[in-house]
Amino acid sequence: MGLQGKHIVLGVSGSIAAYKAADLASRLTQSACLVSVIMTPAAREFITPLTFRSLTHRPVVTDWFDPTSDLSIQHVALAEAADALVIAPATADIIAKLAQGLADEPLTGTALATQAPLVLAPAMDGHMYQHPAVQANLALLRQRGSVIVGPEHGRMASGLVGTGRLASTEAIIGALAQVLGRGGDLAGFTIVVTAGPTEEPLDPVRHITNRSSGKMGWAIAEAARDRGAQVTLVTGPVSLPDPTGVRTVHIRTALDLLKAIGHELRETHALVMAAAPADFRPALQAEQKIKKGLENTMSVELVKNPDILASLQGSFVKIGFAAESESLVKNAQAKLREKGLDLIVANDITRSDSGFGSDDNQVTIVDAHGGVDELPLMPKPEVADRILDRLVELLRART
Fold first, then answer.
1. Of 7, 56, 124, 237, which is most buried by a Cβ count within 10 Å?
2. Pick from 76, 394, 37, 390: which is nearest to 220 by CA?
3. Residue range 254-268, pLDDT digits in tens
């Protein structure tokens, strides 16, 4: 799934942010993409073709007709071969040329000749970005189907602070993956994914929480996006940036989570509950910080939170998670029955090489028909795809 095996044509135009395109080229190559780079003459003033050739292990297009190239008419050959064309950074100049249909060098010529989706990541001075002409050109390109990523707000090379910074590599790759996944096996489905812990406050400073990092839920949300789904991610407090192309709802407590999910499930085909909401919360929350005082102990009365999964009913597919320290399959099967789940993903929290905070996970998938599928240790994005494979089967059976 995702970007593996795709031919991405990366256009680099003349911005100081061109150096960031080297990271993008490297990351795409590491993702097993075939990356072909086209540089405008202005881009070569900021970074050399050798940089991209070294990162992608492929020739870099800089001229209309290069007699040493194996691509006889390069802009046509790359236009036909591309699965997607991404221009990062996209300057005001290149955006204007694309909007007007000009083709005065290989990058704009390729953009006119290709039928592949076009992803643009603008980068320029903040006042330039806000200019009505630039905004009109971007609006026209959106109308034609181009996907615009960013720009971001922050400090720019000029020293000014504003909106004009090139989007992050992660955001650009996320947009590419979303665009290429439009025809995937989850296209047309809406999915709600939950992730992360909840925080149950004791006072304005302290709270009760758990070790969930949100990584598994993030991986599922991004994998579902890459397979064409319309995804909403409901997440507790985590240190991860919001995934590109996913509507993200931030909550804090288990009661917040229940309310948010109830709102999102009105027209949803599936719920994947990867969050780890607290089972209990303090009976009372102090309005002021609790002082240490002279006591050696402190007692906190806890009350049970609602059973979120059990309380949610509907025609949607319902997938839960079970973090267990013993009797993994037995406890997972009991939880599946009690909460009316279609599928449950169980993991052993006593393992040091998977689970909370780790980039890998080793899970056992248990279904409502008694099937038990024990998966090997693998990266969480691969686990996410295995879970979504089962979700696709369930959705097809219902539709």
1. 124
2. 390
3. 999 999 998 888 889
